[in-house]
Amino acid sequence: MxxxxxxxxxxxxxxxxxxxxxxxxxxxTLNILPNWLGYILIVRSLADLKKESPSAGLLTPLxxxxxxxxxxxxxxxxxxxxxxxxxxxxxxxxxxxYFHFQLLTNLADIAGRYGCPCESKxxxxxxxxxxxxxxxxxxVCWLPEATILTVLMIISLVxxxxxxxxLFSLHRFLAELPESPA
Amino acid sequence: xxxxxxxxxxxxxxxxTAAVLLLLKYLLQDKLSPRWQYGxxxxxxxxxxxxxxxxxxxxxxxxxxxxxxxxVVEAGLSSAYSGPYAPVAVGHVLxxxxxxxxxxxxxxxxxxxxxxxxxxxxxxFTYLRLRLLLRxxxxxxxxxEAQIARVAEQYGLRACRTVAVPGLDTAFVCxxxxxVLAVPADASPDDKVLLHELLHLRYRDGLQNFLWCLLxxxxxxxxxLQYVFRRIGNDMESLCDQRVLERLEGEDRREYGVMLLSAAxxxxxxxxxxxxxxNGGRQIARRIEAIARFKRYPAGMGLVSICIALVxxxxxxxxxxxxxxMEDFRPGPxxxxxxxxxxxxIHRCTTPGGALDTxxxxxxxxxxxxxxxASPLSKQAELEASMRRSVEEESWVAYHLEPEQSDxxxxxxxxxxxxxxxxxxxxxxxxxxxxVFGVEGFRNDAGVSGADQDGNPISGGSVLIPVTVxxxxxxxxxxxxxxRTANIPPSDLYGSNDVLPYERTFTAEGEYxxxxxxxxxxxxxxxxxxxxxWGVKLDETPFLSTSLEFVCWTYVNCTxxxxxxxxxxxQLAILDDPNDEPVxxxxxxxxxxxxxxxxxxxxxxxxxxxxxSITSGYGNGNGADTFPxxxxxxxxxxxxxxxxxxxxxxxxxxxxxxxxxxx
Lengths: 182, 663
Prior knowledge:
The complex is a heterodimer of chains A (182) and B (663). Chain A contains six helices and two strands; from the N terminus they run αββααααα. With 182 residues, chain A is mostly helical. Chain A starts with a helix and ends in a 6-residue tail after the last helix. Chain B contains 17 helices and 22 strands. In chain B, the strands form four sheets. In chain B, strands 8, 9, 10, 11, 12, 13, 14, 15, 19 and 22 form a ten-stranded antiparallel beta sheet that branches.
């Protein structure tokens, strides 16, 4: 029962973490939904997720790295100094591709174990998200001023909102799940 | 590669790529399977096989660093393979000696090239020696052959010719296209060892090993890359271990790990095209760690593995546009001059408009680095020498025009920088025209501005420079003659004037009058690049790749013979093709007003003395030019209609004439 409660709390933190990561609201140079906070929330959840899906534990060091890098970028933007270091940016892009794909896979595994109907949605969303991130990266490199970037941005926003909705619905499903008898 | 600098750029680019891959592999070692861990080295192979490009960077501005270093080192040498002002170019990835070495850097390159050749020869020698040894190997016993056939059949693999070699510690496969499996003559190898070797055979690891050896030979003197290649070999073995474990079950997997441990201290065959289960104690330790992670790799990571490879491909293989700061082009202390000149060699103008803009601003701001970026590389030495001389006199880097040139531009008009007039294509594909600066006046010996050279007041003047724009390491500008001056502002140069003949002139003389059409094109940097409508603010940085907007000005002059009583006029049809039917403007030329005109039509009242002259001009067409493309389309010809008192009296076909009036 405690484990079930810990799992629900972990999924809730992951859902909020994704909201912080995928949605940005800027007041001037201040992003009031900082990504680094989202990663911290997710990292805090990994220990509990690991009990249900062991490979989730592999994400802890990557989550810490991503939180650290986003923190540096956030501070830089706050003071109007854009951080433009190609090597860390590339590493962060690659790591985040793996991080989000693996995390959503773990959450899909957990959803499947408890019979949540959002398992298939999570698997589809993780595939769509990783492809979208890759295509967006390639498009920025090759076609920096093309209209397709705007289209990709809109699609990314839709997918981001959808991921958050599915994660919150997973949390609700787990919260409403009857406790298994002792 | 034809110089030590091109090798340096190439090997540093490969090293950066390898470092990034090593770092990522470390972060993802327990997350992505040995297939990805080995396969990702394909990116390094691509990087090594593709020549580095000076205008693109692999995460670090290596081309700038190498170019800077080269210019400093080569300044005191007389290299036959490169020079301080010849930009580093890799061309192809194989070393190529083009001449006898003449400097220390040349000899370094010769030593490098010799090292590549010797390394490849050594690899060939060791391979052939091993093949000879195997040729003398005895056929295996019937029992051993049966064992190999059984293992092959059990796992669906193909066997190959097998020989037994006395004194061999462990089995190995050798050969690129007709591989041979060598087994110890003294002992029967374990089934799992045979499985390992047959899997090497199945995936042509011998051929891959040989290719890696060739790439390794190109960077024989780079210790970091030599370490990386050892890691690649180990990752190949780890992948083979993974494949073995996928085919074994239960206790067999544990025994495989134990067997690998026991192979740590054995000798093993080392030659290109050779794979062996044993590859050294240190490497085996890594493989044991990888084996321990077997089945703990997250499943279903195939898609993200591919995406990661795609994302890595661009910055590490293709490279990103070499970024630069315009401050790179404005050196202050002399220590910044080598970097600035290196920037001018690497960041060349990529459009004719960019070259003209950069060159013009170089003249206006007296910035030698801007001029260097838009000039042939042969001018670099002279420009740098001039700037170094100024350091001795003024303590910072400065560039000065010749005194008479500097005087001409002294009273340049603020906000009105320059224009390019009458650009036309030459036979060899270059462009020639006039670079025109507007000035408020000229500074004469008395220091009077707003006046001509003789001190007479003028309302603006122009400085005209004949230029050619052509392609040479990008687009470059060269002056084609002395600077000229005119006591009229640039806008007055568009129409008929004594300074510049029209770019093209068409004329026709008929019974009722004469009509002449003059054309001129004027080019400017697009307004979006500046806050003023025309031209660019003087403190704007050069746009190495800018386009130019153009306006085609057409001036019409019509004189009629005496005859009309009230008005005379014309209509002009512009022909895009000589065979086109002329289409005249739908305007009545009847002189209800004193005079009027729309450029392609006009009329005027008769003067008291019976003469009439109609002059009008209009601009036609504007928009970014299509360089590198074609200059704006020009009319193929004109047809004019003359009107007396509103009545059509004559239709004339105009012919193009040269500056002497000859058709």
